[in-house]
Write a structure and sequence with these properties.
- By secondary structure, the chain is α/β, with parallel strands linked by helices.
- It is built from 17 helices and twelve strands.
- The strands form two sheets. A seven-stranded mixed sheet has the order 1-7-6-5-4-2-3, sandwiched between helices.
- Strand 4, helix 8 and strand 5 form a beta-alpha-beta unit.
- Helix 14 crosses helix 17.
Length: 388
């Protein structure tokens, strides 16, 4: 089940900059500078008046960062995009630009844990109410939306991987005049372009598949020029979560192999998910690709999914016996990772979406990397044998 979306074009990714401007270099330079000087007094005046769009200070505009933003906007079929220093910086800046005290957000269940914590801490202190709904229940979403300011989605959702009809949900939000926003990190723009389905704003933890090499922490928001302009004018300059030029350069590097990596993640994860489903020690596999049909607009699946062991399996022994799969909290890179559900359920410091919405203590989240399907499956088989 592989997909390729227009205008997603590998050739345009590889040649995404004008080589003639950079001494015919096949890789663009990094503008690793904090500021840019002016040619004369009139140049400075024109720039400050906004009569000339040009870099002044890297927290506001940097050519390397701008190149990444333009590439991502093209992949998401967006008019514009803004890069941030992390996925949470992107989420926080986007959300805070559209709500004020007394407003209400509607969010789907099982959102990313730190987004859940943002809603339950800072936004709670701001007197912003959050209503959670099952994104699979369109009638429940429709009942919750009237009077809301923002509709926050993930599809598939964190941990349990519930896939929603994003186009139908976006249409409900638009009908009620609610700005819709989705975290599209799981699918990447290669397998899902939510703006083409009617969503207003798309967010990525660029640390995941966009970067793809586990060497950068970054985020990005894409959408219309009007909505991106609002974020740029309000939260973006004052919260300070600016993407650095070097990190932007790493993202440009990573995005050029995105189609190839996503196909490899999809194929390996699907094979492993199907094999896990056939094991007696496994109760359930949570992978959207195992359903008869993916929701409209989701044209493939990534390398992240979860499964639940039956009673009697020693999950600690399973985790400790793995060699290729490492214990690690992130995903989206070349390496394979696991997180046991029991570990997540023990977090105490802040509200936890896994605890609130419920996941099994016998569940394990897998990110299937690029080490090779058969080698990874042998690793899982050996670990299950040791744990049974």
């Amino acid at each position: 089940m592989t997909g390729s979306l227009e205008p997603f074009d590998l050739a345009s990714l590889i040649t995404a900059h004008d080589e003639g401007n950079y001494a015919e270099a096949v890789v663009p330079p990094i503008f690793q500078t904090s500021l840019f000087t002016f040619s004369d007094y009139d140049d400075m005046i024109a720039s400050y008046r906004g009569e000339k769009v040009r870099p002044i200070y890297t927290r506001g505009l940097n050519p390397t960062v701008r190149m990444f933003e333009e590439m991502l906007a093209k992949l998401e079929a967006a008019e514009d995009a803004l890069g941030f220093a992390s996925g949470m910086s992107a989420i926080s800046s986007a959300v805070l630009s559209f709500v004020e005290p007394g407003d209400r957000i509607v969010a789907v269940n099982h959102v990313y844990p730190d987004a859940f914590r943002l809603f339950g801490t800072i936004l709670k202190r701001m007197k912003v109410e959050v209503t959670y709904v099952d994104g699979r229940d369109e009638e429940a979403v429709a009942r919750a939306l009237p009077g809301a300011k923002l509709f926050y989605m993930e599809s598939p959702t964190s941990w349990v991987m519930e896939a929603h009809d994003v186009g139908a949900l976006a249409a409900l939000a638009r009908r009620h005049g609610v700005v819709s926003m989705i975290d599209n990190s799981w699918a990447s723009p290669y397998f899902q372009q939510p703006l083409t389905l009617g969503v207003d704003l798309v967010i990525h933890s660029a640390s995941k598949y966009l970067g793809g090499h586990s060497d950068v922490v970054a985020g990005v928001v894409a959408g219309s020029k009007v909505l991106i302009g609002r974020i740029k004018a309000e939260a973006y300059p004052y919260l300070g979560g600016k993407l650095s030029p070097f990190d932007a350069w790493l993202l440009i590097r990573g995005m050029r192999t995105l189609p190839l990596r996503m196909k490899a993640h999809e194929a390996a994860a699907m094979t492993i998910a199907k094999r896990l489903q056939d094991l007696d020690v496994v109760e359930m596999v949570c992978h959207p690709g195992l359903s008869n049909r993916l929701p409209a607009g989701l044209n493939g699946t990534s390398g992240l999914f979860s499964f639940i062991f039956r009673e009697g399996v020693d999950i600690r022994a399973f985790a400790d016996h793995l060699r290729l799969f490492k214990l690690g909290v992130s995903w989206g890179g070349h390496e394979s990772l696991i997180v046991p559900g029991e570990v997540v359920l023990q977090q105490k410091a802040q509200p936890n979406s896994a605890q609130t919405f419920g996941i099994s203590a016998r569940s394990v989240r897998l990110h299937v990397g690029l080490e090779g399907t058969e080698a990874l499956w042998s690793d899982i088989e050996a670990a299950i044998s040791a744990a049974s």
